[in-house]
């Protein structure tokens, strides 16, 4: 396990574990989604459609467009999950650019809640470099406020 150090501030080591998450019964059977890592670094959903989008960079309108093109977000402006059993995996940056970071996080959270009711799911997969970057941005914002 790697410890993260930012100047004189040391953070505890990151812990990784493998977890099986079951969203719901679909057509009478339980269909698991396997996730490794905390934060997730691997997502597997056997027999389901998996859609990945990356580097949203705080741009809500382009995020919505990408999700609509992927067939998981309604195009009527209601921000409704239409992906059914699809598993949406968001990779890479949301933070550090653009004005809509919180709105994008909120949208993804809302879609995850909606997706679970139809057997789908939404995951954000972060690599260590993104975890460290997000942490450093948040710490800088806290220290500068």
Automatic annotation (TrEMBL):
InterPro entries linked: Metallo-depent_PP-like
SUPFAM superfamilies named in the record: Metallo-dependent phosphatases
UniProt-listed PANTHER family: SHEWANELLA-LIKE PROTEIN PHOSPHATASE 1 (PTHR46546:SF4)
UniProt name for this protein: Calcineurin-like phosphoesterase domain-containing protein
Organism encoding this protein: Musa acuminata subsp. malaccensis (Wild banana)
Lineage of the species this protein comes from: Eukaryota, Viridiplantae, Streptophyta, Embryophyta, Tracheophyta
């Amino acid at each position: 396990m790697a410890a993260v150090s930012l100047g004189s501030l040391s953070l505890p080591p990151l812990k990784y574990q493998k977890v099986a998450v079951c969203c719901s019964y679909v057509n009478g059977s339980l269909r698991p989604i396997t996730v490794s890592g905390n934060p997730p670094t691997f997502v597997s959903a056997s027999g389901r459609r998996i859609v990945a989008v990356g580097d949203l960079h705080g741009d809500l309108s382009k995020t919505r467009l990408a999700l609509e093109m992927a067939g998981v977000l309604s195009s009527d402006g209601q921000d409704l999950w239409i992906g059914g059993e699809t598993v949406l995996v968001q990779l890479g940056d949301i933070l550090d650019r653009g004005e809509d970071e919180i709105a994008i996080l909120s949208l993804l959270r809302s879609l995850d809640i909606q997706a679970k009711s139809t057997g789908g799911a939404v995951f954000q997969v972060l690599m260590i470099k993104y975890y460290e970057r997000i942490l450093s941005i948040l710490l800088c914002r806290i220290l500068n406020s």
